[in-house]
Write a structure and sequence with these properties.
Rossmann fold, 60% helix, 8 helices, alpha/beta, two-stranded antiparallel sheet
Length: 254
């Protein structure tokens, strides 16, 4: 009798352990991505969510809780798909149209070294300016607490080192957000006697274009866009996920 009881307990324990394997692996992968890699935090959070969802489905005894979780998850995924459609749709930019100005949106500078995202944006700006020699670039970005130079200064140095004449670059080094990037840059264009409407484009990462254009619209300015391609696919996916939350915040609160 005792032997049978031990077998039953052992069998249940084995089944329990098997049910824990997948959520455990997802949590472990999420922790590795969250703490040992940069630029993939939202993918890590997605893994944590998937692990929690699987655990609820496997271990929760109450059917109504499972149904509620399934419905909420389905609604959340449906919303994510809907909000991602315009984000992905805007990611290709506006082609090769000629603009009087391009506004290069800043990204992190690590000490004196531009981050990969910033280099990608500057590369797109350089290529555009080489193809359109009359275009002026406004490089916009202030200096963060962990940055030795402003983002605008880092961009100016990089562009001049990569073949762009300094006379074609205007540095805006006060902005601390995308909204300020745009607002301050539009003011510079107006101070030069020009109208930013339909005469300028934003240069930013492909996942960021839709939200940047929404912010420009909130300032009553219509802008074009030049897409900077993200080199690493996992980072690109991560930021497309993040933009869904950024766009939601923009639509609800701004």
């Amino acid at each position: 009798m005792r032997s049978c009881l031990n077998c039953m307990i052992s069998g249940r324990s084995c089944r329990m352990n098997k049910k824990l394997i997948l959520p455990g692996v997802l949590v472990l992968l999420g922790l590795v991505l969250r703490f040992f890699f940069t630029g993939v935090g939202y993918i890590a959070y997605a893994m944590f969510f998937a692990a929690a969802l699987i655990a609820i489905m496997r271990f929760c005894k109450k059917a109504w809780i499972k149904r509620t979780v399934c419905i909420l998850t389905a609604l959340g995924l449906a919303y994510l798909i809907v909000i991602e459609v315009p984000i992905v749709g805007a990611a290709s930019g506006d082609g090769d149209k000629e603009y009087d100005y391009i506004i290069v949106l800043g990204a992190a500078v690590h000490g004196d070294t531009p981050s990969l995202s910033l280099v990608e944006r500057m590369s797109a700006a350089r290529d555009y300016m080489q193809a359109h020699p009359q275009t002026i670039a406004i490089v916009s970005g202030g200096q963060g607490s962990d940055e030795n130079v402003s983002e605008a200064a880092a961009m100016t140095a990089w562009l001049t080192d990569n073949g762009i004449d300094k006379s074609r670059i205007i540095a805006e080094d006060k902005a601390t957000s995308t909204l300020e990037n745009l607002e301050y840059s539009f003011n510079i264009i107006r101070q030069r006697g020009d109208d930013p409407n339909d005469s300028c484009a934003v240069v930013t990462s492909e996942y960021h274009i839709y939200r940047a254009k929404l912010l420009a619209q909130s300032l009553d300015v219509s802008v074009g866009s030049v897409a900077a391609r993200t080199t690493y696919v996992p980072i690109m996916i991560n930021y497309f996920i993040r933009e869904a939350f950024g766009v939601t915040y923009q639509l609800v609160f701004c």
